[in-house]
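Case study 2.
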Amino acid sequence: MMTKSINRNSSIKLFQDRLVDIESIISSAELGNIISFNNSSPLVTESAMQTLVLTKSKHEIDRVLFPIIISACATSEEKAAGSGDICLQICTRLLGNTLNKERSQVDYKTNIVKKDLDKIIKKLYSFNRQFHRDDFSTFLKSSVKNKSIEKIIYEAIKLSGKTGKIYTKASPANETMIIQSAGYRFNHEIDESFLLGKKRWTNSNVKCIVIDGFIENISEVYHLLETLHASGDPCVIFARHMSPEVSSAILTNSRRGVIKLFPISLGFDDETINVLNDISMACNTSVISCLTGDLISSAVRRSLKTIDKIEIDKDGFTIFNKPSSLIEDHLSFLYGKLNAFKSHDLTVKDLYAKRIKSLCSLKVDILVGKEVIDKDIYTMEKIDSILRSIVSFSHYGCITNKDLKDTVESLKYEISKETYDIFKNNICKKFKIMPKNSIILPMQICSSLVDSFSNLGGIILEDR
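Prediction:
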């Protein structure tokens, strides 16, 4: 019995020592970290959560500790920008206090922590502060100390308006460029011969047809060619592949000026497997597929949908068309898939992100130049965090540093001294103003996590 008690004490001591190590990661991250990898560029981050995730460790506790903490913080950050680091602080500085050599004490302390967090959450929910222009200015100035970054963000938001999407990318050029573009842009290699020696093929009021299949014989599209010749209407065909015979016939007639038809073959691979569905949404039409019993020769005889405009160049095409409810529903579906994706393999996640970007009709691309990055190596991370926070601000409103301080102070005699001290000395000092859900969500996650966390001492004991 004495051996078991000693083992449990040493296990808990080992666990608590590891939490102290993680706290040092939090402290060092506040100063900034550069994490190097063998086969890729180093990652520059001021995020304690990112540092913890990407720090390789062989510590024996980490196989139990890391999955729980990282999963909680990643979930929080994914749903609310900036909340991952707050979640990490609560995990390491508050939940660690629940560990004790006596099981009865563990249950008692666990219950106290849950009640403390629930009281703070309930109080914060009473704040109904809307996010205004002055709040954004305060948030931006407290998040970055670089006038160049402030100017970039203000300009990008101005160009994107209420409905546009903003994307960021590091540029090899010295100067930063902010590019506004409209339309549904799909990047894909185009057969340049159909550009007929021009830089782009541009037409308005364009007939379109989307075929999930292979156009093998010219007879399958012969009626379409006759119709286009008679009407003079421009048309674009999106298909998986077409035979050299079909391609040659279309090209010959296009060169002669008999028809205005541009065929785009998209192939079939991981990147294009769903692209025809996305294109059909942008064109507000349906996909012709043998799986639904359609024949190409029959489908082309039906009335074709007309899109407002299309521009095609060697690198892809941009569809200009009135947005429909189908697009919004489809984007909601894709965002759901993106947010639900948990794998560490980012390839699939990137594919969803590319599909979403293609279907956003107004885009602003920030190409951050080396001149800005050289002055502040955390530029990309700061811009990303600020832009994600704006969405949370607009949806949930905001909480100021004073709001949280006043809340904790008002509960001073209703919550434990440990909770009071941690919030007053650590959490309250992390921000000036934050989205409401970026403060409340990590507390909710940690409140639901506390039972698993406090049982870790027992798990470690069983393993040792």
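The longest strand covers residues 200-215.
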